[in-house]
Amino acid sequence: MRNGTIGRPAAWAVLALAAAACEGTDRPPPHAGGPGRLAGSWSVELWLEHPAQLRTDAGALPPVRGEVVLRPDTRGGRAVRRDAPRPYYGTHTLDAGPFGIRLAARSHVPGATAEQEGDSVRLTVDPQAPGGGLRLAGTLMGGDSAAGHWSWHGSGRAAAATGRFILRRRDGQ
């Protein structure tokens, strides 16, 4: 740890511990191949199309890559209506700094929330960050990947950044 931040190896350790701690009898069934559950580990790629800073050349920047791990949100034993969006929570390893986007402080475990309704997916990376975090909205394709658009609105400034994303299932569920 340096300057109050956690390094990449520590972030992976936190992800592994969080996933292990979430194991239990409420484990979702294995992935069946159709528009399915979001629970599990996903690789994420973000491409910048419209930067928040006008001086940034979006075409010159490589994609930002990371991982998101999601679990069904069963906190409080709430019953979820069958036709309601399925809620999920988890953590991530995305660093959108190359796009000029600052997410939650590095001293905190980076969080994520998601909802799935049919084949529509909404994922928020660091929802506690200024401006509500990085928001992704897209469509599940065969249950093993999803694609769509993302947006970030920062800390109330008029500037916003937008782009495209792809999620790919990593854990074979």
Q: Measured on Cα atoms, how large is the radius of gyration?
A: 16 Å
Beta content: 35-45%
Overall pLDDT confidence: 75
The sequence of SSEs as H and E is HEEEEEEEE
- CA distance, first residue to last residue: 33 Å
DSSP summary: helix tally: 1
Taken from the alpha-carbon principal axes, the silhouette is globular
Structural class, from secondary structure content? mainly beta
Largest sheet properties: 8 strands, antiparallel, barrel
Total number of strands: 8
Query: What fraction, in percent, of the residue positions are helical?
Result: under 10%
Strand order of the largest sheet: 1-2-3-4-5-6-7-8
Low-confidence parts, pLDDT < 50 over ≥5 residues?
Answer: 12-36
Please write out the topology.
Blueprint: H1 8-22, E1 40-50, E2 64-72, E3 86-92, E4 111-117, E5 120-125, E6 134-141, E7 145-152, E8 161-169
Antiparallel strand pairs: 1-2, 1-8, 2-3, 3-4, 4-5, 5-6, 6-7, 7-8
Brief summary:
By secondary structure, this protein is mostly beta strands. The protein contains one helix and eight strands; from the N terminus they run H-E-E-E-E-E-E-E-E.
Task: Note down, in words, how this protein is organized.
26% of the residues are buried. The protein has 173 residues and is mainly beta. The radius of gyration is 16 Å and the shape is globular. The longest helix has 15 residues, at 8-22. An eight-stranded antiparallel beta barrel has the order 1-2-3-4-5-6-7-8. Helices cover 9% and strands 38% of the residues. The protein has one helix spanning 8-22, and strands at 40-50, 64-72, 86-92, 111-117, 120-125, 134-141, 145-152, 161-169. The protein has one helix and eight strands, in the order αββββββββ. Strand 6 (134-141) and strand 7 (145-152) form a beta hairpin.
